[in-house]
Design goal:
Residues 242-367 form the UspA domain. It comes from Candidatus Hydrogenisulfobacillus filiaventi. This is Usp domain-containing protein. The protein folds into two domains: 4-224, Rossmann fold, CATH 3.40.50; 242-368, 3-Layer(aba) Sandwich (Rossmann fold), CATH 3.40.50.620. Helix content is 40%, strand content 21%. The chain is built from 14 helices and twelve strands. The chain has helices at residues 4-11, 15-22, 26-37, 55-64, 77-85, 127-137, 155-168, 180-184, 192-203, 249-261, 281-299, 318-328, 343-349, 352-359, and strands spanning 45-49, 69-74, 95-99, 112-118, 138-149, 207-213, 218-224, 242-244, 267-274, 308-315, 334-338, 364-368. Strands 3-2-1-4-5-7-6 form a seven-stranded mixed beta sheet. A five-stranded parallel beta sheet has the order 10-9-8-11-12, with helices on both faces. Helix 10 (249-261) links the parallel strand 8 and strand 9. Helix 6 runs parallel beside helix 9 (192-203) and helix 12 runs parallel beside helix 14. The chain is elongated.
Length: 370
């Protein structure tokens, strides 16, 4: 099965060109806005997580000057090779290029004044762990800026998502097929509300600024790490029989409700439904790996010594397959997460919770996301 670093290795030499084309050159303005929000000054230490070909990394190196230090980290060797080929601007800080994963940053605590992840967070195996790692290496009082595609909850954002899928799906030329992951990856992305809630939780402070483009498909969020660590959130609990999860923060909230409110000893079926795969075999394999990770991450929510946990992976349209499974196992309760989408977004992207309310053979509990 293909991993995202391998997909990016294949497109490293033309990544910048096609990113600009697919975004109608909007990506340049979005990157520039993110760099401006970091408030870079000479002498700062900066980390670029998922630096790719280093376009933004070099811009930040110029901003912090020769007294500063900049590190670009990426899991793709091909991307880093491309980054090393490009010269730094005159008067820029030295740049250290490091191959590694955002979920396992090879740096000591409180190492950087600024950290950013731009269009890389949703490609991580575990983006929540990646956020925690970025905050760990950020100095107290430092700024974290995340720029990425998110699952839309507005009608305009949903239209933009469908347009992106329409542009990337026909890319069948072998050298361009990996770009089809761009549209598919949104099925595994957080919503803007989920992402900002997670950033605030790990940083210990409210997200300072958020900016959206293309409705709410593109999000820029900036948070400052709290100077004094705040106590962690109180443990949550969650419901029973069948838990439908896509691994999102909203779905994990539903799982937490089960954990916290259902009686010990109950049987909980943790069900993830993989939508029909894309035609491209490599993208389909990468997509399958992502769904398996979502299922496995969800399993960690439920303690094995409290419940009998039954992991289930199904294929097909999520709503009908879920309802069919609930009926077959004679579930007493179905628990789902419900993302805060507009009516238009629900019609364009589907609404599993609404489908379950109409067709499930048992009571349905919907837990709202952030």
């Amino acid at each position: 099965m293909a991993e995202t670093p391998e997909l990016f290795n294949e497109i490293a030499h033309h990544y910048d060109l096609w990113s600009s084309l697919l975004s109608a050159a909007g990506i340049r303005a979005w990157h520039q806005a993110a760099v401006e929000r970091l408030r870079l000054t000479p002498g700062l230490r900066v980390l670029d997580v998922g630096c790719g070909t280093g376009t933004v990394t070099r811009t930040m190196a110029a901003a912090v000057g020769p007294q500063g230090q900049v590190t670009g980290l990426d899991p793709s060797a091909g991307m880093l090779d491309q980054a090393r080929r490009e010269p730094l601007p005159p008067g820029a800080a030295p740049v250290r290029w490091v191959q590694g994963f955002g979920e396992e940053l090879p740096f000591p605590d409180s190492s950087f004044d600024r950290v950013t992840a731009q269009f890389s967070l949703r490609n991580m195996r575990d983006w929540r762990r990646g956020l925690a790692e970025m905050v760990r290496v950020l100095k107290p009082g430092g700024l974290l800026a995340v720029l990425d595609l998110v699952q839309p909850t507005t009608t305009l954002g949903a239209l933009a998502m469908r347009a992106l899928e329409g542009v990337t799906r026909p890319l069948s030329v072998p050298k361009l097929e990996p770009y089809r992951w761009l549209g598919r990856s949104l099925l595994h992305a957080a919503t803007g509300a989920e992402l900002t809630a997670a950033m605030a939780a790990v940083a210990g402070s409210e997200v300072a600024t958020t900016t959206h483009w293309l409705g709410d498909l593109v999000l820029l969020a900036v948070v400052r790490r709290a100077a004094v660590p705040l106590p962690g959130p109180a443990p949550r609990r969650t419901p029973r029989a069948v838990w439908a999860t896509d691994g999102s923060l909203t779905a994990l909230r539903a799982g937490a409700w089960i954990r916290d409110h259902l009686a010990p000893g109950m049987e909980v079926h943790v069900v993830t439904v993989c939508p029909p795969p894309p035609d491209d075999a490599q993208v389909a394999a990468t997509d399958r790996v992502a769904w398996l990770r979502h299922r496995d991450a969800s399993l960690e929510v439920l303690p094995g010594d409290r419940f009998t946990v039954v992991p289930v992976l199904l294929d097909g349209q999520p709503g009908p397959r879920l309802v069919e499974y609930v009926r077959r196992v004679e579930a007493e309760l179905l628990v789902v997460g419900r993302k805060a989408r507009t009516r238009g977004a629900r019609e364009l992207l589907g609404d599993v919770a609404a489908f379950a309310f109409r067709h499930a053979s048992c009571p349905v509990l919907a837990v709202d996301g952030p």
